[in-house]
Amino acid sequence: MLIYDISCERKALQKGITLLESLVAIVVMALGLLGIVGIQMRTLADTQTGVRRAQAVKLIEDLSERVRANPNAIGNATSYAVAWGSTLGTPPACAINSGFPASSCTAAQLVTYDVDRWLRSVRANLPIGDAAVFVSGSDARQLGVMLAWRENERAREGDSASETSAYKSIFSVTGTSTSGSVTCPAGKICHLQYINLTQRCIPSGALVYCSEI
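Request: output the structure for the sequence above.
Response:
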């Protein structure tokens, strides 16, 4: 009489099932980790966008403070104009000699100094950063400041070209200048803000006058 021992077959079958379960668990875990990494990357991109925009606001505030310090910003409004990709200039001689431009520079020279130093700061603090400054309004009492930096938003998988364009349109702002419109460069994220120009009167002995009117 032959006795067939099936215990060895059952053990082999059980080992195969255990291996399959382990492979399934590894695949599920890998998919979960990929999802977590994707969420973290998206969060990082959104955080970077917020940080860059906060930097842009601070840079525009810096220019605004420089404008307020100029005794005749209105009279030199057009001198503040900056086009995309403008070449960096050199400080005026009065700034180089004195080391503090406000003490010896005229209002026009102060504009040259401030714009040069501010544009250098923009390009140093924003990734592939650039700026466009333009006079807004016919009375030349307001400056439009548009800052641009490298776009870090990627098209979402499955979106059409029109959907991607609509999503990114909020970053492609347009400002109106006295000579036309200024638009955000392609492939860049932009921030647009306006600065009011001032003309400060200063005392001279018993008289009060506004310089360079």
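Residues 142 and 151 are 28 Å apart (CA to CA).
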